[in-house]
Amino acid sequence: MNKIPINKPSITELEINYVNDAITNGWGESCYDYIHKFEDAFKKYQRSSYAVATSSCTGAIHLALIGMGVQAGDEVIVPEITWIASVSPILYIGAKAVIVDVLEDTWCIDPAKIKNAITPKTKAILVAHIYGNVCEMDEIMIIAKEHNLKVLEDTAEGLGSEYKGEKCGSIGDIGVFSFHGTKTITTGEGGILVTNNETIYKKVRVLNDHGRNPEDPENKPYWMREYGYKYKMSNLQAALGLAQIERVEELVNNKIKIFNWYKDLLKDLPVSLNSQHTETKNSYWLPTVILPNNKDLDRNIFFAICKENGIDSRPLFYPLSSLPMFIPKKENTVAYNIYIRGINLPSFNDITFEEVTKVVGLLKEFLNSVA
Ligand SMILES: *Cc1c(COP(=O)(O)O)cnc(C)c1O
Fold first, then answer.
1. Closest CA to 175 of 50, 31, 90, 44
2. I want to staple 332 with a disulfide (CB 3.0 to 4.6 A). Which of 93, 101, 322, 369 is the partner?
3. 229 close to 63: Cβ distance less than 8 angstroms
4. How many whole angstroms separate alpha carbon 185 and alpha carbon 357?
5. Distance 87 CA to ligand 1 centre (A)
6. Is this structure's pTM higher than 0.85?
């Protein structure tokens, strides 16, 4: 039986050739060549002024928060539904993650709830374009401006998504992306930060490499003015990333094609899927269904059926505030109401229509089992 993974990278000759070149020639004086090429190609795709490649998106979020001036004791408003990596770096700094509810249709942060959560300690808003779905960027940017807050777009799952013709990740003050092996493009592990703010860029670039600053007037080897972090990406990873970003249109278009297969095959079923507003483009990183509100429909049963059939499926993220290190916020009713009914379905680049049909067949069987 052929296994159907939820995601896996698409690797072609191009990726292999670039990585081969990097591993053969990319040392010594050339050890930054692919990093710079990858950063240039990425910022061009994003139409952003600056890009800094990192070893993970989690690292990029940590640097972004420091770059935006978030300090211990500050508050950062975050959505109830996202991957833990969106908020862990807030805790690294000793700042507080203020968790607010999401919208019913996009499962992204609810702008009205952001407004209610602002206090004198609020420094920034972190929004996440979850599963490729797009946040309400106009409303979010207006609120941020009114209250003098910075906006960080966690676009780890939203590469290729757009809001009113602008690339997600390039609308707020900083955008971050992940190149983990499950994401739309990969570097094995890796991330990147983009911004149009030169001050933030200069600060982050120095912090990304132990505080080393090539522009320091006293620039001397092994002498630095401040301590930093070590989140920089390797040249090998960047070689893989360059090949992937050169193929990004193809990879994003495939995600959209796969989502549309699901949408078509599921159209008569009582489930809701990732949504897309008229002025947005959804890159559909993970096709996700929300089951109808019926307590007999236990998603764990569906996961067990999938496992038996060699199919990998995943639960929608638990509400962040339900995790043991936070205080539950049951008032975030949208998140608490949908998560238990949410299922992510396979969408790796080379999945076939027949495989998608098989997954949908099992979902239909599961839905009918309680009808
Ligand atoms: C994957 C992911 C991250 C973290 O990415 P890493 O590269 O694994 O650090 C952050 N936020 C979201 C929403 C993600 O899906």
1. 50
2. 101
3. yes
4. 25
5. 10
6. yes
Active site residue 183: yes
Task: Characterize the bridge pairing of strands 150-154 and 174-178.
Answer: parallel
Residue nearest to atom 6 of ligand 1 (CA): 57
Sign of CA dihedral 76, 82, 84, 86: negative
Mapped onto helix, strand or coil, the DSSP state of residue 106 is coil
Domains and their CATH numbers in the chain: 13-246 (3.40.640.10), 248-368 (3.90.1150.10)
- Which residues are paired to 133 by β-bridges? none
- Residue 153 in this model has a pLDDT that exceeds 90: yes
275 has a pLDDT exceeding 70:
yes
Q: Which atom of ligand 1 is nearest to the CA of 183?
A: 1
Q: Give kind and range of the element (H or E) at residue 357.
A: helix 353-368
Torsional sign, CA 240, 241, 245, 250: positive
Given this model, what pLDDT does residue 126 score? 98
Q: Which residues contact 69 (CB under 8 A, 6 or more apart)?
A: 123, 150
Please compute Rg for the chain using Cα positions.
Answer: 21
What 8-state DSSP symbol labels residue 238? Answer: H
Task: Name the band, by pLDDT with cuts 50, 70 and 90, for residue 214.
Answer: confident
Pairing verdict, β 314-315 and 280-281: unpaired
Token pair, residue 123, equals 């420094």
Q: Which atom of ligand 1 is nearest to the CA of 179?
A: 7
The DSSP letter of residue 7 is: -
Q: Is 234 helix (H, G, I), strand (E, B) or coil?
A: coil
Q: Is the predicted pLDDT of residue 222 greater than 90, yes or no?
A: no
Atom 2 (ligand 1) nearest CA: 156
β pairing state of 342-344 and 288-290: antiparallel
pLDDT band at 354 (very low <50, low <70, confident <90, very high): very high
**What six digits make up the tokens of 210?**
């132990």
User: Do 245 and 239 form a contact (C-beta atoms < 8 A)?
Assistant: no
Predicted local distance difference test score (pLDDT) of residue 371: 65
CB 160 within 8 A of CB 175: no
